Amino acid sequence: GLYPESHGIIDNKMYDPQMNAHFALKSKEKFNPEWYKGEPIWLTAKHQGLKTGTFFWPGSDVKINGIFPDIYKIYNGSVPFEERILAVLKWLQLPKDERPHFYTLYLEEPDSSGHSYGPVSSEVSMEQGSCKKYVYLNKYLGDIKDVKVVYGPAARLRPSDALFIGYGPGFKHSTEVDSFENIEVYNLMCGKCEWVALLPSEHRAGIDYRNIPKKSAPWASAPSQERPGRASTARVIPRILSVFEQWFHVPPMTQEKTIKRGALPYGRPRVLRNSTVCLLYQHQFVSGYSQDIVMPLWTSYTIDRNAKLHKGSSQVYSEALLTTNIVPMYQSFQVIWNYLHGTLLQRYAEERNGLNVVSGPVFDSDYDGRYDSLETLKQNSKIIRNQEVLIPTHFFIVLTSCKNTSQTPLQCENLDPLAFILPHRTDNRESCAHGKHESLWVEELLKLHRARITDVEHITGLSFYQERKEPISDILKLKTHLPTFNQED
């Protein structure tokens, strides 16, 4: 249920400079548990008193966290498929006190033949072959000796769908659903209901959404609850934020409802982390200011489609940009942030008939996809000019418009969200940006770091769209969807 950067297995072959070791599926290094950062589901099951049986499932023959499955096999590709299936059927017939509760079975075909012979070969026969479909690389390359082809799908650049089939008393019958990410299968397998006896591991605790159709929901259909007393409605905190009065015209309290309707059309983000937050109402935008880390956790505002024509709309994101820039930001990243706010958001608002924007800092020093605790933040703070400074590891942006572009964000029936989590770095080498205009690389960087709303929620401790009137199941599907885009987009 984790992304590769969290569970550690980012490729079939890789090198770790800290370990000074090479990982490969056919090497002895594969059995080194140091490579495996997540908790496999069979270990989660064992921790909860269940017996597990795995037949050749990747990683099941590794002593992760000092534990093997109750029954496991070291991978041997020469074992016939029939023998593997018969072995699992025999496990199912074991006495009740020996019989596993959880099973996995791995068959490497047609993937293995596809690697060896190609997807259009007679050994695979995945699709009809034709000479017209071949690309002869020697026509395009002068010297192909030093060229290495890296195969595999780029899921964020183009759809690369697998097939999921669910059968049993817990599934809806004859139902086809929209595509979902394969990590969502974890949420199906770990649930609290009559047909699943397995709870999520602590690494995935609190995840209560999924896109897979079931007859009953494993969790109660209710949004995550905000910590009591964590948000107060304050116009401004003069003692801490007197500088605000120099920048902005602080509105009277009577205008707060009007500002909220425009800047927070879907309600304010709820704060699920341990932080005391004050809501700062400015003209046309609102910030959630954390008294614990002395900076905004989020800033929200709405841009109409004619932002370039209206001085007020243009001023909104200019002032909101100042607010988010209260957060320490590397000069190289300001290039990205300024181009995003000054150019891209205007264009997106025009294309989508308006746009609600929520953005803010992210603190994830160990890169586990979860927000850092206050203790961790203090440990990773830096001293600059005799002051303790917290420097974000990333910045997030959540853009929300309407699926029906004849509607504006303020009168929206069906939401169309788009989220990004941008690494906060001291340079832009990732984009080979030296000497290039921002128009040639910033938007591509955004696409590369596209995220789900739930990814943003986990890494920030915020929860979005809690004041929407749709069924919670629809909101959860919205949050877990990761849009793809074509390479030519």
Automatic annotation (TrEMBL):
Top-level division of the source organism's lineage: Eukaryota
GO MF term list: dinucleotide phosphatase activity; metal ion binding; nucleic acid binding; phosphodiesterase I activity
Biological processes annotated in GO: ATP metabolic process; inorganic diphosphate transport; negative regulation of fat cell differentiation; nucleoside triphosphate catabolic process; regulation of bone mineralization
Membrane-spanning segments: none
Gene Ontology terms: cellular component: cell surface
Ranges of residues in domain ENPP1-3/EXOG-like endonuclease/phosphodiesterase: 282-471
Database matches in Gene3D superfamilies: Alkaline Phosphatase, subunit A, Extracellular Endonuclease, subunit A
Entries under Pfam families matching the protein: Endonuclease_NS (PF01223), Phosphodiest (PF01663)
This protein's UniProt keywords: Glycoprotein, Hydrolase
Domain (DNA/RNA non-specific endonuclease/pyrophosphatase/phosphodiesterase): residue spans on this chain: 281-457
InterPro entries: Alkaline_phosphatase_core_sf, DNA/RNA_non-sp_Endonuclease_sf, Endo_G_ENPP1-like_dom, ENPP1-3/EXOG-like_nuc-like, His-Me_finger_sf, Phosphodiest/P_Trfase
Descriptive protein name: ENPP1
Organism encoding this protein: Cervus elaphus hippelaphus (European red deer)
Lineage, opening ranks: Eukaryota, Metazoa, Chordata, Craniata, Vertebrata
